[in-house]
Amino acid sequence: MQLINYLRSLIFYIVLVISLIIISLTFPACIFIDKKFRQKIILSWVSFFRFWIKICCGVKIKFEGNLEQINSTEKKIYFSNHQGFIETLVLYEKFIPAATVLKDVLLHWPIIGWALRLLSSIPINRGKGSDAIKKIFSQGPELLEQGFSIVYYPEGTRRKPGDLGIYKKTGAQLAFKTNSKIIPIVNNAGECWYGGDFLINPGEVIFFLGEAIDPSEDSREITEKVRNWSKEKYDELFGV
């Protein structure tokens, strides 16, 4: 079984790289296109990613919970636990137009980095704490005012499935500053493909959206509320 998963994973990566090269041919033209429409073009590749990981590796991806919030015109910041690559791609596409807070080193990756530079992302250096926070507070409000939602990973780095990290309060502070709703999300994407692993295991990845949470001046309390909900819902859904 392990050998089969290895071969399926290898085939998956080969085809994925080819598909990335193909979509990158649109990047020069995207420079001159409206930022929101640009996202639809570039992130159409994620539709292929979802199709291909299901066909090749047996990974089914679905969304549950309060999905009607996605189409709300209110300003929104999505708080999701972070386990690997699947959620970083799928959530970006699901919430178009969206911006995501990510590590600036990703901008140096071939093709992926070029795409991120065109996708209104918020790249930060987590090693420079105060500078990173300033960048989020500088670019975040502007993007929210332009109609983008923000995808924020409060743990700051990926964690193993079942190991929910400490949630940082920066996202809650931004929500209060911009009067944005907080939409908590839990997922088990790492059970199929944990970030950094070569093997991709078949299974079902669920993204569950919770009820919107109003921002508050007490960012520590709101952050704790989001994390408590995330921990309870994760344990309930995924049997930890």
Keywords:
globular, 240 residues, Glycerol-3-phosphate (1)-acyltransferase, alpha/beta, 7 strands
Specify the CATH architecture: 3-Layer(aba) Sandwich
Overall strand count: 7
Q: Give the helix proportion (percent range).
A: 40-55%
- Overall tally of structural domains: 1
Our measurement of the CA-to-CA distance between the termini, rounded to an integer number of angstroms, reads 25 Å
Characterize the biggest β-sheet: 7 strands, mixed
Please provide a written account of the structure.
It is a single chain. With 240 residues, the protein is of the alpha/beta class. It has one domain (2-238): Glycerol-3-phosphate (1)-acyltransferase. It has helices at 2-24, 27-30, 35-42, 44-57, 85-94, 112-118, 129-145, 170-178, 219-238, and strands spanning 59-65, 76-80, 98-103, 122-124, 149-152, 181-187, 203-209. It has a seven-stranded mixed β-sheet, sandwiched between helices. Helix 6 (112-118) links the parallel strand 3 (98-103) and strand 4. The longest helix has 23 residues, at 2-24. The chain is globular and about 50 Å long. It starts with a helix and ends with a helix. 34% of the residues are buried. The model has no long low-confidence stretch (mean pLDDT 94).
Give a short overview.
With 240 residues, the protein is an alpha/beta fold. It contains 9 helices and 7 strands, in the order H-H-H-H-E-E-H-E-H-E-H-E-H-E-E-H.
Write the layout of secondary structure elements.
Layout: H1 2-24, H2 27-30, H3 35-42, H4 44-57, E1 59-65, E2 76-80, H5 85-94, E3 98-103, H6 112-118, E4 122-124, H7 129-145, E5 149-152, H8 170-178, E6 181-187, E7 203-209, H9 219-238
Helix pairs in contact: 1-4, 7-8, 8-9
